[in-house]
């Protein structure tokens, strides 16, 4: 999967958590459109 990320607006910091956690990345592409990439991630 290729993401066209020009600028990261925000992201979650879940370092050190050991469970299923939500992860989110808000970013702008090179055309200035805003996108959200969100998932629940199992860090175990």
Structure description:
With 44 residues, this protein is an all-beta fold. The protein has one domain. 0% of the residues lie in helices and 52% in strands. A three-stranded antiparallel sheet has the order 1-2-3, with no helix packed on it. A hairpin with an 8-residue loop joins strand 1 and strand 2. It is elongated and about 35 Å long. It comes from Pseudomonas nabeulensis. This is DUF2790 domain-containing protein.
Can you describe this structure in just a few lines?
The protein is an all-beta fold and 44 residues long. It has one domain (7-42).
Give keywords:
single chain, 44 residues, mainly beta, three-stranded antiparallel beta sheet, 3 strands, elongated
Number of strands: 3
By DSSP (H or I, 4+ residues per run), the number of helices equals 0
Q: Give the CA-based shape.
A: elongated
Which percent range fits the helix content? under 10%
Q: Unreliable stretches, pLDDT < 50, 5 or more residues? A: none
Strand composition percent: over 45%
Count of folded domains: 1
The H/E string reads: EEE
Distance between the termini: 23 Å
Structural class: mainly beta
* Main beta sheet: 3 strands, antiparallel
**How are strands sequenced across the largest beta sheet?**
1-2-3
Radius of gyration: 12 Å
* Arithmetic mean of pLDDT: 83
Organism: Pseudomonas nabeulensis
Protein name: DUF2790 domain-containing protein
InterPro entries: DUF2790
Write the topology of this structure.
Elements: E1 7-11, E2 20-28, E3 34-42
Antiparallel strand pairs: 1-2, 2-3
Protein name: DUF2790 domain-containing protein
InterPro entries: DUF2790
